Amino acid sequence: MTAVLSKVSPGRLVRVAAAIVVFFVVWEAYGRTGKALAVPPFTEVCSELAGVLTSGDLLGPTLGTTAVALSGFVIAGVLGSLLGLLIGLFPIFREVVGPWVNAAYATPMTMFIPIIGMYFGLGMGSQVFLVVTFCIFSVLMNTAEGVQAVPIQYYELAKTIGVSKLAAVFRIVIPFALPYVFVGLRISVASAFAGAITAELLLATDDLGLMMMTASGNFQFVKLAALTFYVALLGFVAVGLVYALERWVAGRLRAAA
Fold first, then answer.
1. How many Å apart are CA 135 and CA 155, to the nearest integer?
2. N or C: fewer beta carbons within 10 Å in the chain?
């Protein structure tokens, strides 16, 4: 992560930091107006979050929610990359599967929660399955777009120098499409935590979802806002880790070239 930050220009860091500060100042100012009970001041949210963190009550729920989110993310990453590769490489596969992918992507996955609960139960399996549905499409579509973006000249050059089609996939297509894949992975890892919380709220009330539902039911708006902010921080950290992984993989590929 340090290596990644070292390559970011100071000007960009200043702009990002300024935007974050402005956001929190506006949040604090709006919360102080008292116009919305569900939006308490940022300082009160931080104080509540610090109290929950020091109490140790968040450790178990955090591990449980993170396990569900990351399990679904990994499964979606693998399946989405493979399906996206097939859709990008084979026009017939794209024509047959593409319309179904588009239809599924346009369908609100929460509609299928009763069916998911019926077939997968109300345990971790159903939660992970729902997370997969939240994550897989961004990886699949970005991978397919990256594969289709490979210039035709690359294939012609590979054919000229005698590179087999399978070797061209590994030596040309996949390296070219990796930036697209990682864009999908960054989107999906954030969606993974949203999917995990949704699953915990609507399928099996557990972990951070249970804490949020309890706070909401008891009208503990400051605690609810603190937990929501905490989940957002988890997603932010996860996206940063995926970005760092992308930079590491890109560096290794450049070194091997």
1. 31
2. C
Question: Is residue 1 helix, strand or coil?
Answer: coil
Query: Within 10 A of 99 (CB to CB), how many other CB atoms are there?
Result: 10
Amino acid identity of residue 238, one-letter, is A
Is there a domain that residue 24 lies in? Answer: no
Query: CA–CA distance from 132 to each of 67, 123, 164 (Å)?
Result: 13, 15, 34
Instruction: Name the pLDDT band for 3 (thresholds 50, 70, 90).
Output: very low
The pTM assigned to this predicted structure is: 0.85
Calculate the alpha carbon distances from 139 to 21, 77, 135, 198, 201 in Å. 32, 6, 7, 20, 25
DSSP symbols for 56-73: TTTHHHHHHHHHHHHHHH
| Residues 196 and 127 sit within 8 Å (Cβ to Cβ) | yes
Phi, psi (degrees; rounded to nearest 5) at 129: -60, -40
Rounded-to-5 percentages of helix, strand, coil across the chain: 85, 0, 15
**What is the Cβ-side half-sphere exposure of residue 117, based on CA atoms within 13 angstroms?**
13
Domain range for residue 64? 60-256
Asked whether the beta carbons of 69 and 193 are under 8 A apart, the reply is: yes
Q: What is the largest CA-CA distance in the chain?
A: 71
> CA-based angle 215:217:221, to the nearest 5?
45
Give the number of domains in the chain. Answer: 1
Return the CATH number at 125. 1.10.3720.10
Least confident piece of the model among 45-59, 138-152, 158-172:
158-172
